[in-house]
Amino acid sequence: MGLTSEEADLSRLIITSLNLPGDPLQVDPEAPLYGGPLGLDSIDLLELSMVITKKYGVMLSSEGANKTEIFSCLRNLCNYVQNHQTG
């Protein structure tokens, strides 16, 4: 399963900001975020978007055409953040 250091950081951010139970280092990077093992819903994803914008300076629009792909799993979300990070 193995997380990259960036994925581990993002996983910690997800777990802590949404007050989720579990070990951030045990999150499957390929598992679905929405409705997957973490049980995230649309409100969680909206909150997560705001936290990511604040921490990484990456704007994640809930209206974006590629939002389904970006939020499909931790790995895709992490890749998007890394490729669009401003700071």
How would you describe this protein?
This protein has 87 residues and is mainly α. The chain has helices at residues 5-17, 42-56, 67-70, 74-84. Helix 1 (5-17) crosses helix 4 (74-84).
Poorly predicted spans = none
- Inertia-based shape: globular
Strand content: under 5%
* DSSP summary: helix tally: 4
Keywords:
single chain, 87 residues, mainly alpha
What would a concise description of this structure say?
With 87 residues, the protein is mainly α.
Blueprint (SSEs and pairs):
Blueprint: H1 5-17, H2 42-56, H3 67-70, H4 74-84
